[in-house]
């Protein structure tokens, strides 16, 4: 469902990601569909292993063998008015995708230690992005890199520019990742848990910087997080994922005031201060997410759902339904054709 008349920057259309292992096939993403519009933030939320990061890696061309995008389309519009290109037509190491990735489309990774090169100075890594994706000369690139480092809260940037990633703390490396992703002023930013491990002041600083750059250039953001407080403050729309599929999609006010899917309701009940917390007791979602090789028939959430209907939920997979133009939900409770 497209939510407005503007052209989306990104259209994920029924994207499937699979890993062929000796033990069987892991279906990491099972048909994810969503749009991201210029200037908006779409949050992807859900428990670990629900496919949030994998669907973003698919768009960035970062799925490594034995993984593959087995089905779907990922349409990216490089600038307003341009025809969208299907990113899946490019090999993950192709020149076309390398040009888009890191420049027009960037990512703040969850694990800065693995994303930053340990053998290159951080200044050189920032300079590489600026060299590839801007027309700045060497002096301007140095100034721009130092400015970005300062903006993400790295003091004494001209000196630290020449240091290696191991000379920084975990929180500082996270901020350097943010500087690297944002310095090319991408049209689309995937922010994968961008504030994990940061104290609240720096967390607010990074989120503010993302918002500031978004306002200046109409950047779209896909925010991947399990932190619903950050979602409430930052996102425009929210997609809730469970076991590789989107189970609910709505604008942030609607989702927080009137969640529909039993999984979303349970998630809300596990947040301190939420109006869904009854008697000051946080709700625990019983059971756990099924193993990666486990195939759950019917609704993927049925073994953990309080509203489970025998003979329906465990037999037939619910389709995504548009309820009122505001919420899309994948649950048999809202089916008129049962
Ligand atoms: Fe629960 Fe059934 Fe809805 Fe699944 S389809 S969330 S099991 S009520």
Description:
The protein has helices at 52-60, 95-100, 112-115, 122-133, 138-151, 157-160, 170-183, 200-217, 228-234, 252-257, 262-268; strands at residues 10-21, 24-36, 41-45, 67-76, 85-86, 105-108, 188-192, 220-224, 237-242, 245-251, 321-322, 327-329. The strands form two sheets. An eight-stranded mixed sheet has the order 6-7-8-3-9-10-12-11, with helices on both faces. A four-stranded antiparallel sheet has the order 2-1-4-5. By secondary structure, it is α/β, with parallel strands linked by helices. β11 (321-322) and β12 (327-329) form a beta hairpin. Iron/sulfur cluster binds next to loops.
Low-pLDDT parts are: none
* Net shape: globular
Ligands in the model, by name, code or SMILES, are: iron/sulfur cluster
Order of helices and strands: EEEHEEHEHHHHHEHEHEEHHEE
| End-to-end gap | 23 Å
Question: Which structural class do you get from the secondary structure elements?
Answer: alpha/beta
Rg over C-alpha atoms, rounded to the nearest angstrom: 21 Å
Number of strands: 12
Mean pLDDT: 89
Strand content: 15-25%
The helix count comes to 11
**Assembly context of the chains:** single chain
Main beta-sheet strand count, sense and barrel state: 8 strands, mixed
Strand order across the biggest sheet? 6-7-8-3-9-10-12-11
């Amino acid at each position: 469902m497209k939510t407005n008349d503007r052209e989306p920057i990104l259209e994920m259309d029924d994207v499937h990601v699979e890993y062929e292992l000796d033990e069987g096939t892991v279906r990491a993403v099972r048909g994810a569909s969503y749009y991201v519009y210029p200037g908006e933030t779409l949050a992807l939320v859900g428990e670990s292993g629900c496919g949030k990061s994998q669907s973003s890696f698919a768009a960035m061309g970062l799925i490594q063998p034995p993984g593959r995008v087995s089905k779907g389309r990922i349409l990216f519009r490089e600038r307003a008015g341009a025809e969208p290109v299907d990113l899946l037509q490019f090999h993950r190491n192709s020149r076309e995708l390398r040009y888009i990735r890191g420049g027009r489309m960037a990512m703040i990774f969850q694990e800065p230690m693995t994303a930053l090169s340990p053998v290159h100075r951080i200044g050189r890594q920032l300079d590489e992005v600026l060299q590839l994706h801007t027309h700045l000369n060497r002096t301007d690139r140095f100034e721009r890199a130092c400015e970005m480092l300062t903006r993400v809260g790295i003091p004494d940037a001209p000196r630290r520019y020449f240091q290696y990633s191991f000379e920084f703390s975990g929180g500082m490396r996270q901020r350097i990742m943010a500087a690297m992703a944002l310095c090319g002023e991408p049209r689309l930013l995937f922010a994968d848990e961008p504030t994990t491990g940061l104290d609240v002041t720096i967390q607010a600083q990074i989120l503010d910087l993302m918002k500031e750059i978004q306002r200046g250039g109409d950047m779209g953001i896909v925010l991947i997080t399990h932190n619903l407080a950050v979602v409430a403050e930052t996102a425009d729309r929210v997609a809730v994922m469970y076991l590789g599929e989107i189970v609910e999609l709505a604008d942030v006010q609607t989702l927080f005031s009137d969640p529909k899917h039993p999984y979303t309701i349970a998630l809300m009940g596990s947040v301190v201060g939420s109006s869904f917390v009854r008697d000051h007791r946080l709700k625990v979602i019983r059971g756990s997410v099924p193993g990666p090789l486990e195939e759950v028939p019917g609704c993927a959430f049925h073994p953990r759902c309080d509203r489970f209907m025998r003979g329906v939920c465990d037999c037939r997979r619910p389709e995504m339904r548009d309820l009122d133009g505001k919420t899309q939900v994948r649950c048999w409770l809202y089916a008129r054709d049962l």
